[in-house]
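Before the break, one more example. Copy the sequence into your notebook; we will annotate it together after we see the structure.
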Amino acid sequence: MGPLVALPPAGISPEQVIQRFAAKEADFKAAREHYTYNQEVKVQTVEGDTVDGEYKQSIEITFDDKGRRAEKVLYAPAPTLTRVQMTREDLDDIEKRLPFVLTTEDLPDYQINYVGRQNIDELDTYVFDVAPKKIEKNKRYFQGRIFVDQQDMQIVLTDGKNVPEIRKKSEENLFPSFVTYREQVDGKYWFPTYTKAEDNLHFSSGDVHIREIVKYENYKRFGSDVKIIFAGQEVKSAPDARQPKK
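Here is what the structure looks like once it is written out:
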C-alpha cells in the first residue's frame, strides 16, 4: 500500500461516495448469488513455528437441477484443533462476514467516517473507517477499514475484525483480525477471492496464535439463460483487468 493521504474525494462528497458504493454493493450481493465458485477454508493454531492443530474444509457452491443454490462438500478431514474449537459464530463469519458486504440496507447500522485516499498496487482508493453504531443482541458486525476503488466505486479490500467478542465465565469466543481481498470478475464485479487472518487471541487461559486462510476460486456465472443486471444494464463478460495484489 501507498501512504494514506488526507485529501477529500475528487469532485464528489464522502457522503455521495458512500451512497454510490453501497448501491453497487447491493447489486454485487445479488449478482454473487448467480455464480458458482469453490471455497477453501484452513484454520490453524500455531505454537512457535509449529502448526499444532488444524481445521480444513473445501466446498463447491453450485446449483441443483431446479436452479436452487446448494453446497457440495469436496474435502473435510477430521479437525485436529485442541486449543480452540470452531464455533457457530466462526462458521457464520466465514460464510457472511469475511466477504464483508456493505449495502444501502446496511448503512443505518454503521458509523462510516472518511479518512482519505490510498493507493493499493495499481488501484486508487477512497478509505473509510467502519464501526457498528450499537451492538444488538445475537447480531454480529464488521469493524475496521474498507477501501473503495475510485473508478468503479466498489469495495476492493477489507481490513478489520468481526464483533462482538464473547467473554463469559463459562464461554470465551474470540475472533482474529483479517484482511479480505477482492478481484474483478467478468470485468464488472469485485468479488472476494482471498482472506487471511493472523492474530494472537488473548484467552483467560493464555494466548493462542491463530492463522486462517479462506480462498474463493473459479467464479462462473450459472446458466446461459441467467441475466445479471447491474445499474439497469445487463452485464457482459470482459477480461479481468484490475485487481489488488495479495
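Residues 14-234 form one domain. The mean pLDDT is 89. Try to locate both features in your own notes.
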